[in-house]
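Sequence in, structure out. Go.
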Amino acid sequence: MRSRRRIRTLLVVAALGGAACNAIVGVETVALGPGKSDAGSDAEAPGEDADPTPSDGSTPPSGPLAVKVALGYIHTCARRLDGTVLCWGENGAGQVGDGIPFDGSRPEVTIPQRVVNIRDATEVAAGISHTCALRKTGGVSCWGLNFFGQLGDGTKTRTSTPVDVTGLGDATFIVAGTSFTCAVRRDETAVCWGANYAGQLGDDTKDDKSTPVPVKQLSEVLAMAAAEYHACALSRGGTVRCWGRNDDGQLGIGSLTESLTPRAVASLNDVVAIAAASRFSCALRSSGLVYCWGANDRGQLGTGSASPSPNPSPVLVTGITNAKAIWAGYDHACAALETGKVVCWGAAGRGQLGTGSPGIPLDASVPRPSEVVGMTGAVTVVTGGEHTCATTIAGGIFCWGSNGLGELGNGTKQGAFSAVPVTGFP
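Output:
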């Protein structure tokens, strides 16, 4: 069994027509098994060991290799091996980071475009309409929508140019929820900032914050997962704590009671990776088994059947015994297996499960893990609102699912039920 495991997660929330409508927020998180974080206690870049270097010792392919991917609801970003970041898809709030002033309409971007002023990124995280990058220095820079202070610069001014998060220079890990952002610090404590409607910042209040505030009652944090209105943290020893909204049981505490501070997830003590989605959460245990909890109306718990009743305690995802990583989207989730294959379950109507079956109803669901067609040897797989992407050992990116605003990055707005290559990558 590998000593380190990774997990990419994703959630999103959309504001439509002036009313806040729950959607999903794209987030990439990397969770490590018991031991140390990627950055450790020094200044090494988090996740550097995840770069796609061939195991046979040969020289990796030249070109714009993708090593980290983050998906928002309708935009996508990738951190390249050289430390630059590319983004594509919806760009109404400047979340693609093109540096163009807000003086007119902002059309979507259908092929990857380089984010300005970012050359030393080690991680990238995407919310519904904002994006952040962790720098080699330990600083964090963000861009896009800032209505709730999710950029962390002490203002609520949107920007298409990266701005530095105030007072944060020792981050080792970042994650973005719907309209909030969190970071793990070098001392293994956590901070969050942005929207706090349901207590998702974990500071025992419901007040929005435009600069980082400490998450209470957390220590020895290795990684985090941020969703729509809740967040979770993985600590040394394999324990998981969650906080925020809980009307679907997404905190995993055995009840539907919300919590403004972290609460321990029931019956989990050997977790190596976590994922948080809009209304459910998942955990990967050291045995390779996956457990999920929360909403299951679209089969997102992977138990083999859907149910309108929430499940506030972890349940076993059927048919998975050798997972090495997990990810959760708005209403779907995926797992990478030790065999190199990927399986997904949950909402399927936009092709986000990669089953290769077009023409299914928009409300279609697959309540048990189903193999993604045409994807083997994936390094990472990341889920978004209604699209999914995978990176390969060669540094390429393949995406499938919804593509109405160019979020698949292949130069079109045509959705795909099987993997298509992102333009400009090997």
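Check: The chain has one domain: 14-53+63-421. The chain has no helices and 30 strands.
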